[in-house]
User: Fold this.
Amino acid sequence: MSRMDPRLEILQAVGDGRLSPDEALRRLMETPSGIGDLGFARIDLDRKRRCGQAEVIFGQGKTAEWIIGGARRLLEAGQDCLVTRVPEEAAQPLLSALPSGEYDPVGKTFWLKAPGNRSEPRGHVLVLTAGTSDLPVAHEARTTAIALGTECRLVADVGVAGLHRLLSRAEDLDWADAIVVVAGMDGALPSVVGGLVSCPVFAVPTSIGYGAAFGGVAALLTMLNACSAGVAVVNIDGGFKGGYLAAMVALRTARPS
Assistant:
């Protein structure tokens, strides 16, 4: 699918009255390189054209001012803004600066659609957690999948210690175009799910567990050795990556042939 040249988008915004000529000139000067240079960061404004999705801001280790600056530059370019791993001390300043955004204190994410970017969700992503302790990572996956434009359901606490809890959600399993399974401890749930469904399963190991869990390494190794063929594994606590990959699959699945 071809995507509109960003320079044409800028010119159309001027024609529609959404952008002043002075601001359009500034953006056009940046467009050939596709980089919004903020001094402390270089925002990849061309990524949406190349990859279909705007750059996502990784908030960990960044000040509120850095996050707000990057978010505003994305929004100025007409692109949605997703921030993951928002530091606790940056959450309130971020909401004060951009009050229309949605902050999830469980998943530590912030999401804001650019004005005028309104579209119906496409594709179905299901996020499952083995336990309640896995919810922060699962929330990150869910917000990511929604931000990328899919419809997403989250079902919590369906781990293998009570397998009947998962089997009772057969309707959700059938509904999904892609599934994210978030699990710590023994990390066994993704292999079970992979044996029940015909769609891809993206396994996310979490750092939840006692000493021999080794901060998620035990779950990671279990998932890498999953018997089910349709299971792929991302990094420990990588809810963003799991949600992103599942959304890419779901969006492709939803496209007309």
Observations:
- The chain has a mean pLDDT of 89.
- The CA atoms of residues 36 and 73 lie 7 Å apart.
- The chain is about 40% helix and 15% strand.
